Amino acid sequence: MLKYISMNEDNIFDIVKTQMEIFQSECGYFQYNYALKCGKDYWKYWLVYDDNNIVAITGLYSDFEITETNSIWLGWFGVRPKYRKQKIGTKVLKFTIDEAYKLTEKYPIKYFRLYTSIDENATAQLLYKKVMDFCEEYNNPNDFNYNNTCRIWTKLLFNDKKVKWNNKYLGLKEISEQEKKYEKKFLELEK
Question: To the nearest 10°, the Cα dihedral for 60, 65, 69, 75?
Fold first, then answer.
């Protein structure tokens, strides 16, 4: 049975190391630190255990005012390579969607969204196709879009109209710059 442990000051290094194992060219240390310090209850991340082994990570966040976008985003979702193809990803994604539903009691959230690259996360696309409601291409000309392979998947949290993201600026360029800067900082702290 999977156990979900909320990220905290004591396990932040475990979550960053796991994230960097899953997403080898990215470092989420900035986002994780921000989640711990921002005081926003919709910025949260979990380490996922099976017995005593970390098998996956997941999270929720919103860089935007929820009242403007009615959206919550999937953050740093992934399964460690040696635990893949065991349906763990499906269980963890559904857990995260359930956590997003809980937030709808407090915030006007209608949409659970995620962005991904079809090149870098081709396997995950199959899972998203099963669990999420619709997909759209993300090609904002002012933002980073993974060489035109960026996709946004959306899950409707209520029986509501299908509202696309429609290429609104996500800020992926700034996120990528933060990741590079904080990867060096994280590696120095880890020593």
Answer: -20
With vertex at residue 6, the alpha carbon angle to CA 5 and CA 11, rounded to the nearest 5 degrees, is: 85
Distances (CA, A) of 187 to 27, 45, 125, 155, 183: 10, 20, 31, 35, 6
138 with 145: CB under 8 angstroms?
A: yes
pLDDT at 147 over 90: no
Listed in sequence order, the residues at least 6 apart from 69 whose beta carbon sits closer than 8 Å to its beta carbon are: 62, 111, 168
Q: Is the pTM of this model over 0.85?
A: yes
What was the pLDDT predicted at 190? 66
Q: Which fold has domain 2-190?
A: Aminopeptidase (3.40.630)
Contact of 92 with 83, CB cutoff 8 Å: no
* 82-102 burial: b if 16+ Cβ within 10 Å, else e: eebeeebbebbbebbbebbee
Q: pLDDT grade, residue 191 (50/70/90)?
A: low
Mode of pairing for the β-strands spanning 134-137 and 150-156? antiparallel
pLDDT by residue (tens digit) across 82-139? 999 999 999 999 999 999 999 999 999 999 999 998 876 777 899 999 999 999 999 9
Residue whose C-alpha is closest to residue 140's, from 180, 176, 173, 177: 173
Helix, strand, coil percent content, the chain, rounded in steps of 5: 40, 25, 40
